[in-house]
Design a protein that fits this description.
It is built from 15 helices and 16 strands. By secondary structure, it is of the alpha/beta class. A hairpin with a 6-residue loop joins strand 8 and strand 9. Its EC number is 2.4.2.29.
Length: 375
């Protein structure tokens, strides 16, 4: 259940109550693709860095270890020892990004596993069954994520099929939630808006799926090659068409600046691999811009990554030490950078919520953007 607590311009401050706890929004979901955050980060670590929601990947867990295995072990929460909300994406994006050999048909998609090439079929029903086995808090509908540069005719047909698939997802989830052996009978379903950079297709699709009274709505198919300006233009057009009394989720976004701009346009949920991926390469986020700890200038720098930061890395270690770990290819170096970056993102979301509560989001956004543009 979503409660809209406050608006500051178009920015929304909400509270989303789930069977696995309350999510304060806007929120950044920490991405643990294969039921773990890359960089040797445990679920105990996540609790210590203010993580509210963990996001795992339906396709990857279906391929390995197998969703049936996870179900036998009591579901994803028990499997990974995490008692807060989990969102699982539908696998749709991976079907389209990883599969070179795929056939899209009305019933679903035939493709080959990226691990060993074995044939897999996934459609709306299969995606819901896998996510039900995983027993996540929030399941995403199975959609096609077409290329942002697909032509109008292809995009129209694709979006129409995604709508038909969404209705099948909704029916299948209702069926699964009613079964006696379902681990989480309160699993929620978010639908996904598609349409590339065609405003009219996006708007029409948003209006159609808004009528289905789902638990939440995502904007998909952005951050896949279009410019930031195009992304913001689409959000300006689409978000007002989605129900204000439901959470809005911008999938796969993004940089701190992207998040601030999207919050300003009414988005509640975010996820992105940037903080963990950049951290594993020694790139860390600060309020004064991004730093590359491999740079020689940090060799004798005994300061923390960021003065005043309360993350596990900054509380205990210097830039010089973390740089040494990275150069020596010690896993601890990667781990500390990932922890810092996720803490930075989770703290920024906390600051955003406080700023909206205080009616000062525009002031906060301006200050934050100006600070991060420094080098």
């Amino acid at each position: 259940m979503y409660e809209l607590l406050k608006k500051d311009g178009r920015a929304k401050r909400g509270r989303f109550t789930t069977v696995h706890g309350v999510i304060e929004t806007p929120v950044f979901m920490n991405v643990g693709t294969a039921a773990a955050i890359k960089g040797a980060v445990s679920t105990d670590d996540l609790r210590g860095i203010k993580t509210q929601v963990e996001l795992s990947n339906t396709y990857h867990l279906h391929v390995r270890p197998g969703d049936e295995v996870v179900k036998k072990l009591g579901g994803l929460h028990k499997f990974m020892n995490w008692d807060k909300p989990i969102l699982t994406d539908s696998g749709g994006f991976q079907v389209f990004s990883l599969a070179k050999l795929r056939k899209i048909k009305e019933e679903g998609v035939h493709f080959n596993s990226h691990i060993d090439g074995h044939k897999i079929f996934m459609g709306p029903e299969q995606s819901m069954q896998i996510q039900s086995n995983l027993a996540s808090t929030i399941a995403m509908a199975f959609d096609e994520c077409p290329s942002s540069v697909a032509d109008r005719k292809y995009m129209t047909n694709s979006v129409e099929r995604t709508t038909r698939w969404l209705k099948r997802c909704k029916d299948e989830m209702a069926r699964l939630n009613s079964l006696p052996d379902t681990i989480n009978p309160h699993q929620m379903l978010f639908g996904i808006n598609q349409g590339g950079i065609y405003e009219d297709i996006r708007i029409a699709h948003a209006q159609q799926i808004a009528e289905l009274n789902l638990d939440g709505y995502a904007v998909g198919g952005l951050a896949v090659g279009e410019s930031h300006e195009e992304m913001y233009r689409i959000l300006d057009a689409v978000v007002p068409q989605l129900p204000e009394n439901k959470p809005t989720y911008l999938m796969g976004v993004g940089t701190p600046a992207n998040i601030l701009e999207a919050v300003d346009r009414g988005v509640d949920f975010f996820d992105c691999v940037y903080p963990s991926r950049n951290g594993r390469h020694g790139h860390v986020y600060t309020n004064h811009g991004k730093m590359n700890l491999f740079n020689a200038k940090y060799e004798l720098d005994d300061r923390p990554i960021e003065e005043g930061c309360n993350c596990p890395a900054c509380r205990s270690y210097s830039r010089a030490y973390i740089r040494h770990l990275l150069k020596a290819k010690e896993m601890l170096g990667m781990r500390l950078c990932v922890l810092h970056n996720l803490y930075f993102y989770n703290t920024m979301m906390e600051e955003i919520r406080d700023a909206i509560d205080a009616g000062e989001f525009q002031v906060y956004k301006k200050r934050k953007l100006e600070g991060m543009e420094q080098k």
